[in-house]
Specification:
Number of strands: 14
Distance between the termini: 31 Å
CATH class of the largest domain: Alpha Beta
CATH topology of the largest domain: Rossmann fold
Number of helices: 9
CATH superfamily of the largest domain: HAD superfamily/HAD-like
Structural class: alpha/beta
Helix content: 25-40%
Shape: globular
Bound molecules: magnesium ion
Radius of gyration: 17 Å
Largest sheet: 6 strands, parallel
Number of domains: 2
CATH architecture of the largest domain: 3-Layer(aba) Sandwich
């Protein structure tokens, strides 16, 4: 079933579904960004949400090191989850593992084999040095279909594969941003709203976990490769979709 467009919700439905939300978990790339950069209007809305008592928690596939910088500078934000749920990041504290520590060199070697067998020359991400558990490669324009075709070989090597609009991730455990968020949030899942744009956000969309799950409009064209779809979808793509949700949340609070 296709997700319900957020803009179709009546005011009473908005208040009922979003009035009790206390935490907004948000993907970063493709969700808070427009093109390659953080949308300045997103920064302003995050400050408003936090001032209204809705904690905003970035949940990213980016490295612990980059998420630390993001959390430090986003107004009102205190913590984040990095590397698709593997670690929690609070500035100036040691990262907290939310999953088992991984053998990065071993995963890296297997991933290169999988790529080579498929005729892909995988290129390690430029931000690899800031990762503590995740092994990721530049997407370099690879299509959803080309990446989905790698899944059988990945599973045959006891690895898992997911991807965002920018990176391809290989892991020894099934990547699950949603499970990590639930273990770290400190509030009930029903008080959490989630938003993301790509297959690596699927754990944030699993039915029954959260009070509301929202995809930017980008999820619609990727539905064939999404392990789970959100309940709601924004009208717009990328950060314009996030801003649509932020306005709704601010308007739905009692
Ligand atoms: Mg994304």
């Amino acid at each position: 079933m296709d997700p319900t467009p957020l803009h179709q919700l009546s005011a009473p439905e908005r208040a009922r579904r979003f009035g009790a939300i206390r935490l907004l978990a948000t993907d970063v790339d493709g969700t808070l960004t427009k093109g390659n950069g953080l949308d300045p209007e997103v920064v302003a809305q995050i400050a408003r949400l936090c001032a209204r008592g809705i904690e905003v928690v970035p949940v990213s596939g980016r490295p612990a090191g980059e998420v630390q910088g993001l959390v430090r500078y986003l107004p009102g934000v205190r913590r984040g989850i990095a590397e698709n749920g593997q670690v929690e990041v609070v500035p100036d504290r040691p990262v907290r593992w939310l999953a088992e520590a991984s053998d990065r060199p071993a995963i890296h070697a297997l991933a290169l084999e999988i790529g080579a067998d498929a005729g892909l020359e995988l290129r390690i991400t430029a931000d690899d040095r800031f990762r503590v558990g995740d092994v990721a490669f530049e997407r370099d324009g690879a299509s959803d279909a080309a990446l989905a075709a790698l899944i059988p070989a990945t599973r045959a090597r006891d690895l898992f594969l997911t991807w965002s609009n920018v990176h391809i991730h290989f892991t020894t455990i099934s990547p699950d941003k949603g499970a990590a968020l639930l273990s770290a949030a400190g509030v009930d899942g029903h008080e959490i709203a989630t938003i993301g744009d790509a297959p690596n956000d699927a754990g944030l969309f699993v039915a029954g976990r959260f009070g509301a799950t929202i995809g930017t409009a980008d999820v619609l064209r990727q539905r064939a490769v999404m392990p789970a779809m959100p309940e709601f979808v924004t009208e717009s793509t990328e950060s314009e979709g996030f801003l649509e949700l932020a306005r709704l949340l601010l308007g739905a609070q009692p």
